[in-house]
Amino acid sequence: MMTFLRVILVLFLVQNTVAQSISGKVVDEKSKPIEAVNVYFDGTTIGTLTDKNGNFTLNFGAKLNSILVVNCLGYNPEYITNFKPNEFLNIKLNMSVNVLREVVVQRDGFPRAQKMEVFKKQFLGTTKHGKSTVIENEEDIYFAYDAKTKVLEAFADNPLRIINNSLGYKINYQLVKFDCKLYPWTTMPKAVRNCYYAGLTRFESISNLAKIKKKRNAVYDGSRLHFFRSVAANNWKNDGFRLFRKSWEVNPAAFFAVKDTLDFKKITVTTNKYQPAIVKILAEFDLLRKGDQSKIIFETDTFFVDKLGNNSHSDKIYFSGSMSEQKVGDMLPMDYGIN
């Protein structure tokens, strides 16, 4: 996520307290109620809409590591992070200012169709689920390409409407950042050096067929969400995750200490000894599960995991290999499988 999202997520982790529900009212600048406002926890199916009086109630149980998003077309979104148990929230949304953007046609040898191809491959993914996932409002996406730095950026003023029929989800995705660095000698989509994207998501289930549930279970099995839940539960062996360091299999308990706090599991990672101060990497491990290999890199020695498996420092924990291949087309809501 971008810096401001990282900051408010940390504030949420430190300040917020356990709550069973949230209620509130959403009004505009003239204090008139706004109907059909999206109120949801980022990355989950936990959400609701305001009624004709602007009121809402959202039941969610224990404290989460997710931002509460209040969003409505035509208004600037609000991010709620520090609220008290059963507190009634009075939320005011300001109308967004539409700025006419000047479209500059550049002779960069990189047409929009090819930019879109890069975006969809890096954002939705190239797995069978990623390839079948559709963005309904592609026309809302616009690009900026710097021919000198070979960096492609994507933006969208409106949330992306994503339909994943393969996994049975409709996703409302508010794109915060998309930054893709290409290799200098070509602009072909396959020549991507690295890519980063972040955003706020709300999931809505559009199918409960048995075959869809089977696909969801297959995607969850061995995913990053599965991994963090396994770490928090100290359930490495039963979940089939094997940890390696410098090609040697090691006992996870020797490197990951799990402690119960009031609302979260606090995970402390054993860092590399004699690590130079100029190097951000504090620890790195290889993961093996059912023949799939991944690498995990830590730029933090402490993080927190909530009951959903959401970790507090996603900006400082990186994956490569099998786990990194799952993008939006293989993304499950954070509350997947939680009763």
Explain how this protein is built.
The structure is a single chain. With 339 residues, the protein is an alpha+beta fold. It has six helices and 21 strands. It folds into three domains: 3-92, Sandwich (Immunoglobulin-like); 112-205; 221-330, no CATH class. Helix content is 16%, strand content 35%. The strands form five sheets. Strands 8, 9, 10, 11, 12 and 13 form a six-stranded antiparallel sheet that branches. A five-stranded antiparallel sheet has the order 15-14-18-19-21, with no helix packed on it. A hairpin with a 6-residue loop joins strand 5 (68-71) and strand 6 (78-80). It is globular. It starts with a helix and ends in an 18-residue tail after the last strand. Residues 1-19 have low confidence and may be disordered.
